[in-house]
Write a structure and sequence with these properties.
By secondary structure, the chain is α+β, with helices and mostly antiparallel strands. Helices cover 27% and strands 40% of the residues. It has a single domain, classed as Trna Endonuclease, Chain: A, domain 1 (3-Layer(aba) Sandwich). The chain is globular and about 40 Å long.
Length: 126
Amino acid sequence: MFRKYLGNYGEFTARKILENKGYVIIEARYYTRFGEIDLIAKDQDVLVFIEVKTRIGGHYGSGAEAITKKKRKHLIRTALCYLQGKKYKDLPCRFDILALELNKKGELLKYELITNAFGVEGGNYY
């Protein structure tokens, strides 16, 4: 229950941060059988698939470190599903990671936005 609350709070906070940076949020919590993408947005003329990682304190490393090769593969597969039949399919795409660190009261201590965090080069994703 706490993890779900933390994730929802992190996504809410992420939306505010990204909107302040000029991103336009298109969709949240996009699910397929391959996985979930937390946020999908436009950053000028680029479609951005965003993974939000929220941590309390720095005890377990940064949220960005939690994006394993397996997780990247799931994100790419999910993004490919999203692009099929969507009106944004002709836009260039990228994957961003937004890592949030909160204190024990739930206040934002810091965040790290990693733009173009990884690519899809040379992979077999199906």
